[in-house]
Every structure is written in structure tokens, then in C-alpha cells.
Amino acid sequence: RKEVEQDPGPFNVPEGATVAFNCTYSNSASQSFFWYRQDCRKEPKLLMSVYSSGNEDGRFTAQLNRASQYISLLIRDSKLSDSATYLCVVRPRGYNKLIFGAGTRLAVHP
Amino acid sequence: DVKVTQSSRYLVKRTGEKVFLECVQDMDHENMFWYRQDPGLGLRLIYFSYDVKMKEKGDIPEGYSVSREKKERFSLILESASTNQTSMYLCASGSRDEQYFGPGTRLTVT
Questions:
Q1: Angle at B37 between CA B86 and CA B68, to 5 degrees
Q2: Which of A55, A68, A85, B8 is found 20 to 30 A from B53 (Cα to Cα)?
């Protein structure tokens, strides 16, 4: 079983739609959680951290459910520029490394 | 702006050749990382370094070695390239949680 699992997609949505991705992780001792974004043929970049209480950054909302070991990302009012692959990332407690999911691809169309 | 640069965007090498991939960062980060990214597998950590001359194995170190002689530079070495090392190689620097990636080197081993 992969340590971090994501639905690869693609999620094809029209502009203005709301879309949500989930991600599950297997290590219950995971301490830190993130969403990274990777545009086609580009490097990954940190989109946002995910906090236990949930957090929002503009149109993006991230949630963490420790009991069920999943993380979610909600994108409201999708833009064409949101088209990318979204990587779910966790860091287990006591580890100095990040563990990346394989990513969920989002395609926003006009 | 953080800048992480990699020596080549595209590289083609023959089986058995020794390959050097270089990475330079300009943010005085202690930590530097080498990943490979393959479709469906996501980013997998090869090696990382938390200080000059210090290195730690990641999840898939076999067939690779690294060198960190200066803080800003982290090199990945393929001692004898094999076709299963054909991949996208990404270097990153930063903290345990927030990593800044270089543009990647697409290596093809024929």
C-alpha cells in the first residue's frame, strides 16, 4: 500500500465550478501536511500547509481529518489557471523527509 | 526569490556511463534533496543532505551517490547508468516542510 494515496484523475471541470480532492495517508504518526501544485512540465511548488483546524487561502480550503487519516483540498470558482497536478504531501513525526502522493490532475475548461 | 538551478534540462546518456547531475541553491539552506519523479509513482526521495559533507539515504538510494562539498551545491552521481534510471530528476532545497524545487533534469539512458 502506498504511504500517500490520491485519485490520479483527471478531474475535468468547467470554469467557475467547485472541485474537491481527497488524499489518504497510512502513517498515523504523520505530523505535517501540505498541498503542492505542479504545472505541466514544471517543478512542484508549495500551495498551502494543512492545519488541524482547517485553513483557507482565497479560493482554496484545506482540511485534515486525523481520525480517518485523510486530507482534502477544495477549490472554489475554478479558473483556467488552476489546471495543474495537485500533490498531497505528508511528513511523519521524527522524519526529516516529505512523502509525496502521485498527484491528482485537474483540467479546468472554458 | 529562491532560486534552485540544475545543470541540464535534458540529458541523454548510454548504459554504463557515469552521470553527474548538479544542483545549486542561492538561499543558504542547510537542507538539500534529490528526487526522481516517474508517472504514477510520484516523487521519490533518493538522498538528502542537511549540512556540508553530510548525507542520508532516502527511499531509493541504490545505484546513486551524492556529494555536498559546499553548502550551495548538491550533486547526484549515477555510477553506472542503467535504463531503469531514465526519469525526471528534481533537486530541492529548504526546510523539512517547505522545499523549493529546481526545474528538473530529464535523463534518458539508452
A1: 85
A2: B8
Taking an 8 Å cut-off on Cβ atoms, the answer to whether A98 and B102 are in contact is no
Q: What pLDDT digit, counting tens, does each position of A41-59 carry?
A: 999 999 999 998 889 999 9
Q: What is the 3-state secondary structure (H, E, C) of chain A?
A: CCCEEECCCCEEEECCCCEEEEEEECCCCEEEEEEEEECCCCCEEEEEEECCCCEEECCEEEEEECCCCEEEEEECCCCHHHCEEEEEEEEECCCCCCEECCCEEEEEEC
Please indicate if any CB of chain A lies within 8 Å of the CB of B88: no
- Flag if B96 and A45 touch (Cβ within 8 Å): no
> For all residues of chain A together, what is the average pLDDT?
93
Query: What tens digit of pLDDT does each residue of A13-23 get?
Result: 999 999 999 99
